[in-house]
Structures are given as C-alpha cells and as structure tokens.
Design a protein that fits this description.
By secondary structure, the protein is α+β, with helices and mostly antiparallel strands. The protein is built from four helices and twelve strands; from the N terminus they run H-H-H-E-E-E-E-E-E-E-E-E-E-E-E-H. A six-stranded antiparallel β-barrel has the order 1-2-5-4-3-12. The protein has a six-stranded antiparallel beta sheet with strand order 8-7-6-9-10-11, with no helix packed on it. The protein starts with a helix and ends with a helix. The N terminus and C terminus are likely disordered.
Amino acid sequence: MDGPYLSATVYRALPRPSANGRGLTERTRSEHRTASAVKTLAQRFAYLGLILTAVGLMMLGKVDTVLMERLRLAFVDTVAPILNHLSAPSDAIANGLEGIRQWVAVRDENARLQTENQRLLKWQAVALRLESENMALRRLLYFVPGPQARYVSGRVIADTGGTFARSLLLNAGTANGVAKGNVVITGEGLVGRIVGVAQHTARVLLITDLNSRIPVEFSPSRTRALLAGNNADEPLLIHIGSDVTVSVGDRISTSGDAGAFPPGLPVGVISSIQEGVIRVRPFVDRSRLQYVRVVDFGLKGMLGPHTVKADNEAPESTSKTDGATAVKTKDVSSRGDR
C-alpha cells in the first residue's frame, strides 16, 4: 500500500493521549504559572524588603549602639578571612607588577649613576690636581690658614620680634657654646647672626632686618657691595659703583670684609632691578626655618662681643659719654671759679 493509504495507516497507529496525560500537562502548566507569579512578586517586593531591612538596622543602631557595634565586629571577623583569601591573587599580581616597575626603575637609575660616576671621576682628577697645586702655592706664599670653625645646631622656638623686627629665638645659649657675633646658617645659605644670648637661648638677627648690614660680593664680576635689610622679604643691595654691570640672577655671597662674616657664604640672588633699586632674594626662606647651625668662625671684626646689644641690656656708651660730659663740665666750672 503506497501513497495516502500508508500515511493514514501510520496516523491511526499513533497512540492518542489519555485523560491522565492531559491532566498532568495541565497541572504542570499551572505550577509553572504559579512559580512565575511568585517570582515576579518576589522581584517586585525585593527592593522594598531591602529598604525596610536597612531602615530597621538603622533604627536598631540608634537604639542600641553597643549591640550594633558587636554585630559589626562579629561580621567583620567573619568576612575578613574570606576577603583576605580573595585578595591574595590580586595582591600577588600587584606585587609582581611593582617588582617589574622597580626593576625597570633600578636599571634606569643604574645607567644614570654610571654616567654620573664617570663624570665625577673626571672632576675628582681635576680636584686632586688643583688641591696639589693649591698646597704648593700656599707653601710658596707662606699662607696662614684661618681658625677652625666650631658649630652648634639649634632649633627655632619662637619669632619674638622686640627691638629687631626680623629676629628668631633659638633653644641654644652660652651653655652650648653660643656667643654674640656667631654666624647662623642652614644648608641653603646665610640666615643671620647672633645679637643676644642667654644661658639656654639666643636671638638671631636675620639678614632682612632693618639693622642688618652685610658686606657681600656678587659674581661673576666679584664686585663688592653692602646688603642692607629693609624689614621685607627681599633686602637691598647698596653702595655699588655706577660703572658696575649688575644683572638679574647674579649670585650674592659674603665678601669677608671687615671680619664680620667669612668669605663665600651663599646669601641669595638678584631678583629685580627697578629704577636703580636692586633687590636680593635670599636662599633661606624665613617661613620654613626649623633647624639652624650656629657657627663660630673665630672672627671678631665689627661683630665683637660688645658691639651689638640684646634687648634687655643697656648700652655702655651712653654712661661713658655722660661721665665724660660731667668731667668736662666740672673742669669748666673750676676754671670759671679761678
């Protein structure tokens, strides 16, 4: 039997679903619909439940802070080991990347240091040759070296003002070997000089104070001048010849004239030249001063022990002048009597 007869026979041979099968199918569909409805309802109320939970925890935290702190600590203790294990791979990767970065940086630093070392070796050879030549010239000229400098390090404890508008107070005094006229410096350059000293404290007159006058020279011409404080951040450069060429950026250092300061101490640079007024920007920033070095170069000059008076000392010249005046008056009166 061919054609449609075969198809009809096969169709009749197929089993028809029974009543029980149709019931199971409908039950399954009903269960799926119920589960979908429950899932949709749960999704709708999930956010509301989270909000209510958060509000409840906040209220509980306000009511009983001790209990919430204990719960928080217990939760942290429980989660911390898990977080530690989870962060271990990321930490290992970060450490590996940091090691690679440091290796590259060390390689670049090594190359730079090798280049700098070769350059310094050349300068070392030049310095040794110049040192030998300098020693030979000193022996030839019978050069007398200066006294050995002594220094004491101190900390700035106050900015007191007083007689001097620009002064600082140090926590070192005569008990530490500090004396009037000592030079105060930092790694950047000159700060000032000691103008008053007690047993455990000392006062520093800054180079920017109106009473400060420092013999200096500016390079490259090495022309002498005088650095005058003006109670401002940038002191003035005065007593310069009219035929001297001055440029912004010239370095200022002490000249050593009058035995006030040793030569070569860095002071600052010329910052501006306006209408004949030359201003100098000091290397040392007063606002950042914390530790200084008080140096005794063994220089007396105009910084002798009786030249500059502290705030609490009376000048001696007044009494001597008054005595001399009294003597002269007595002599004149005695001559008049005669």
